[in-house]
Design goal:
The chain has 105 residues and is mainly β. It is 10% helix and 48% strand. It has helices at 51-55, 66-70, and strands at residues 2-10, 19-21, 26-28, 38-43, 58-63, 75-83, 86-92, 98-104. A hairpin with a 5-residue loop joins β7 (86-92) and β8 (98-104). It starts with a strand and ends with a strand.
């Protein structure tokens, strides 16, 4: 089952209370207090993330079994733990939309 979790919108502006994700070389905001679950995402110029993620905003879904959800999908970022207790990966749909799938413990 997929459940909407948040939308990640790209920005080049600093926001209050950003969290730095070193593996991605990116800053993210907490989507929880935002009334529409917006996560602002700001990448460093040398971020190793794929271009599709650095240039197109994404939608994230909570899933029960990340490994099962990734089967047969175009995985562009293999599973990693951006924040303790969250295992995430990114796929790219056939029409070029980056989607984040998250398994939360």
């Amino acid at each position: 089952m997929k459940e909407f979790h948040h939308v990640g919108i790209l920005t080049d502006k600093k926001h209050e209370n950003e969290t730095y994700i070193s593996d991605c070389k990116a800053y993210i905001t907490d989507f929880e207090p935002h009334p529409f679950r917006v996560e602002w995402v700001r990448f460093e110029p040398d971020s190793p993330m794929p271009e599709a993620i650095r240039t197109v905003s994404h939608v994230a879904f909570k899933v029960d079994d990340l490994d099962a959800e990734l089967k047969g999908k175009n995985v562009i970022v293999e599973p990693f733990e951006p924040i303790e207790g969250i295992r995430a990966a990114f796929i790219l749909t056939e029409d070029g939309a980056p989607i984040e799938l998250m398994q939360i413990d």
